[in-house]
Amino acid sequence: MNTILIGIAGGTGSGKTTLADKLIDSFGDDEVSILRHDNYYKRHDDMCYEERSKLNYDHPDAFDTALLCEHICKLKAGEQIYMPVYDYSIHNRSEETILVKPAPVIVLEGILIFAEPSLCDLMDIKVFVDTDADVRILRRIIRDVKERGRSLDSVITQYLTTVKPMHEQFVEPSKRRADIIIPEGGENIVALDMLIERVRKHLKNK
Ligand code: C5P
Hints:
Belongs to the uridine kinase family. This protein is about 40% helix and about 20% strand.
């Protein structure tokens, strides 16, 4: 099978997950599979919750990228993999895994995927979702408080101490590696349609 890997990167709250979800919703499970870098955050079973909550989750070293690369290579070779599942409410990997089957198109999304040369080398199309920082922090506050069990104070402290500086150091410069830059992610229907057409073309010629 001729498999292509489409990377969708962008800062926290940029809309990359919405774009990736809308893209995969247009196709069947046997056509497009999805991987998320967040699911590959390293395990920290040796630490207590308090210690884990203080870690820097916006640095490339926070992820087990070697495992993700291994999984991408297996999928490209036609083998299925078990993607880890990450639980933000406990800051740790859960015991569950998700079965991901090989498909002609694999979508990979994550804030730091273009900051990792080993991952970039495996990508055929690199899309960066570019959204203003004020919109991103507003989305992040709402999501983290409503869905990830965080307090407003903790979201603000984390944003100022790690999320913002790491975005400036790693995420923003990684935009230069992109083939396409999409403003506003999943709400950009023109860009979404173009990506869907590109995937259709690959599926026709695979
Ligand atoms: O979905 P999104 O791209 O925003 O997810 C990445 C964000 O998740 C990072 O900016 C990181 O700060 C956050 N994160 C967190 N707590 C964890 C793991 C990741 O707040 N335990």
